[in-house]
Amino acid sequence: MTTILNQLYQRRAQARVGGGEARISKQHKQQKYTARERLLILLDPETFEEWDTFVVHNCHDFDMMEEQIPGDGVVTGHGKINGQKVCVFAQDFTVLGGSLSETHARKICKVMDTAMRIGVPVIGLNDSGGARIQEGVSSLAGYAEVFQRNALASGVIPQISLIMGPCAGGAVYSPAITDFSFMVEGSAYMFVTGPNVAKTVTHEEVTAEELGGAAVHASKSGVVAKKYVDEVAMLLDVRRLMKFLPANNKIPRLSRVHPQQPMQPGHDDNGLRPALENILPQDSNTPYNMQHVIDNVIDDRDFFALHHDFAANIITGFARLKGRPIGIVANQPLHLAGCLDIDASTKAARFVRFCDCFNIPILTLVDVPGFMPGTTQEHGGIIRHGAKLLYAFAEATVPKVTLIVRKAYGGAYDVMASKHLRGDVNYAWPAAEIAVMGAKGAVEIIFRNHSKDHQATKEAEYTQRFANPFVAAEKGFIDDVIAPHNTRNRLACAFDLVAEKDLRNPWKKHDNMPL
Ligand code: HXC
Questions:
Q1: 90 belongs to the catalytic site
Q2: How far apart are CA 172 and CA 161, in angstroms?
Q3: Confidence (pLDDT) at 430
Q4: Atom 3 of ligand 1: nearest residue by CA position
Q5: How far is the CA of 131 from the centre of ligand 1 (A)?
Q6: CB-CB neighbours of 374 under 10 Å
Q7: With a 6 A CB cut-off, is 140 part of the ligand 1 pocket?
Q8: What is the DSSP string of 163-223?
């Protein structure tokens, strides 16, 4: 017995050094932790249970039998984050560059299948040279097996990808299918074809960082939801994110009110926030920071922003409102006056769909002058992309509470979770302006052939008549006009009212949303 136990300990110890001390030290010199070190930071202490530690590849080509390292370049298993179960896999760059073999892929598939069976999130830590070159098509098959599972798990369990090293070629498509990808600055990059191919084909000279570093993907492409200065910051922030997410799509909304923690101090105050009275500038064309509205509504100013640096004209993120997890979509007047453009539409649409999949109620804060005009947007397909956001709000059956903070003009009024898209509770602040368009533009069209004086009179009349929330309120499109200082209470009460809402869309195999 002692002998066999010793053998076990010995084999475990051998597995834990992965590709060996030299490669571990190379990893550390690049400011990168090893796969197991990363999992220790991500998971609650002493909760990680490793599976398939002794699995080895069975490739005989290119002397690969001499390179059989236990675990085959990926550490897999399960653990807990804030007490919630999660399945994890972490590619080990010290073993053949974390490259993906048939066996390596099978290990990832096993934890994904388990996560689906038991209904818990999967978090993948990616750090890999891509397909194991010595294995040829077997490694491509392995990738496809992972992609297939990503697609089937989408909308069933949350899937999160952490990009902590190279992620190139078709390998990028697994993170792309998952719900959120996060990236470390400096040491991680993602691209379909690397700098060398770019140079050959398009004659561009770019570095890996310029082509697919964290800054590019967090602000230009929108591929990742957030970037971090280092690995520890990323891993700790993902622990924070998990506080807002349910384990799967079957968790009823009510059971997620305070799932882990008791009510926190401060939630029991009277809920009044006088600061909200002073946020809107006198002139309705002057920008202000919508984040201040959010901070004064949510619990403890604890907002988990997603895609903060991409399409900054719309804010998306998670928070709690009197303990209840909610998703927030809000126009940001500080950028492009809060207009909806292509990037803002796709960013918000994907977020709304995530919330709808996972029963997370949506708060929509509206201050939108309309869609962004111009050839760049029209030729880029704002019709197709804007339709995504419209579609996402229209199909969502989760509780939807909307507050028009200031402007709600034109088609953008309809799109932003209006009453007509099955908004459950729709409120407006007294300074709200809800109309087809601004007074000046309206008068220039309908009184085009009249004198300037007449136009000025009509502009004042149009402003008086439409630049307020009462016309919409008279028609019941707005359920109430609320006092800014009491917003937190009114919104919390609205979410409470519709928490048990039961709304279903007609049966279909799946929809055909505009892509
Ligand atoms: C097998 C690999 C490997 C791979 C790296 N290694 N990538 N082994 N298959 N794909 C091994 C190296 O031989 C080396 O082994 C160790 O991992 C570390 O690699 P280094 O090159 O020393 O590391 P570094 O200098 O940091 O460079 C990292 C790298 C580079 C930029 C990722 O290794 C690289 O370019 N690798 C090839 C990338 C690639 O072309 N992959 C295939 C992409 S196509 P030793 O023994 O020396 O430590 C693809 C298709 C997927 O993935 C399609 C899915 C549908």
A1: no
A2: 10
A3: 97
A4: 129
A5: 8
A6: 10
A7: yes
A8: E-SEEEGGGGHHHHHSSEEEEETTT-EEESS-HHHHHHHH-----HHHHHBHHHIIIII--
Nearest CA to 464 among 492, 493, 442?
442
One-letter amino acid identity for 278? N
Q: What is the pLDDT of residue 258?
A: 52
Residue 189 CA: distances (Å) to CA of 38, 92, 163, 172, 202: 18, 16, 8, 10, 20
Q: Residue 485: which residues within 8 A CB-CB, separation 6 or more? A: 272, 273, 274, 276, 277
Mean pLDDT by 10 residues, the chain (515 residues): 89 94 96 98 98 91 86 97 97 96 97 98 96 93 98 98 93 96 97 90 93 97 98 98 96 65 59 96 96 97 98 98 96 97 98 97 98 96 98 98 97 98 98 89 86 88 88 97 98 96 96 95
The response to whether residue 96 sits with its C-beta less than 6 Å from ligand 1 reads yes
The per-residue pLDDT for 257 is 62
Rounded to the nearest whole angstrom, what is the distance from the C-alpha of residue 202 to the centroid of ligand 1?
23
Q: Are strands 84-91 and 122-126 parallel, antiparallel or unpaired?
A: parallel
Say which amino acid occupies 450. Answer: H
Q: Retrieve residue 476's tokens.
A: 């019941």
What's the DSSP call for residue 421? G
Residue whose tokens read 């009114």:
490
CA of 237 to the centre of ligand 1 (A): 29
Task: Work out which ligand 1 atom sits closest to the CA atom of 130.
Answer: 52
| pTM strictly above 0.70 | yes
CA dihedral (167, 169, 175, 178) in degrees, to 10, reads -170
CA of 265 to the centre of ligand 1 (A): 51
Tell me how long the chain is. 515
Closest C-alpha to ligand 1, atom 46: 96
One of 20, 83, 170, 381 is an active-site residue; which one?
A: 170
Question: Exposure pattern of 399-434 as b/e (b: 16+ CB <10 Å)?
Answer: bbbbbbbbbbbbebbebbbbbebbbbbbbbbebbbb
In the numeric block, which tokens belong to residue 325? 């997890």
